[in-house]
Amino acid sequence: MPLTDSLRDDILAAVPSLRAFAISLSGNADRADDLVQETLLRALANIDSFQPGSNLPAWLFTILRNLFRSDYRKRRREVEDAEGNYAKTLKTQPSQNAHLEFEEFRGALEKLPQDQREALILVGASGFSYEDAASICGCAVGTIKSRVNRARSKLAALLYVDGAEDFGPDETVRAVIGGSGG
Amino acid sequence: MKDLKSQASKSTTPGKGGLTPEIQSRIGHQLRAMYDDVVRQGVPDRFAELIKKLDAPGGASQVETDGGSNDNNNGRD
What we know:
Chain A is an all-alpha fold.
């Protein structure tokens, strides 16, 4: 369909969640914004192939995900630059405690296999249905469900070690130190 | 020795994948907190301007992607 004003508004409205998705995927705000920019340019260049009435956010997320995938493969071979600056580049700085917990969570998220991470983000944070997430990732609905479940289990194992918070801070601290010291 | 696991899950019932609903909701909460933190930043100027540029006649040619002109991957493949 042609690029109407309302379609343009809808694309603009999707930008904040596209950025959040890109940052969750890449763990780096600068790279994420480049991904979003390229996504928008691709979307606008290919706007004729967008089906009116279909899910615009899902269409945009699909473009971004595919770009990230090809970009990721390219970059893996390049220098491992100073990444992991995600929290630093955020405009709103969480409070100290929340910040630690946040860092820990982000670190755990990055340890997930990419398939699981993107499935969990799409369903658990972006709020897509399993069906939409499956179409974005180009796989079966059952596959998305099992990826989301595995992602949750892995995160729980990484972060909460069988409910370690129930045993008091000592257990938690020991688990954290034991896991990262070396 | 006490079974710490059964003690920990005393008050809750394990859900999918052996996760307690409490841990599931905690993961969901943290995930959304992280995500929404970015969503709340709104639309950065660079993107608003990028899309606005396309309003102008011939605007699209000003913002071509680098060498992406013959790449038709629109995400529906």
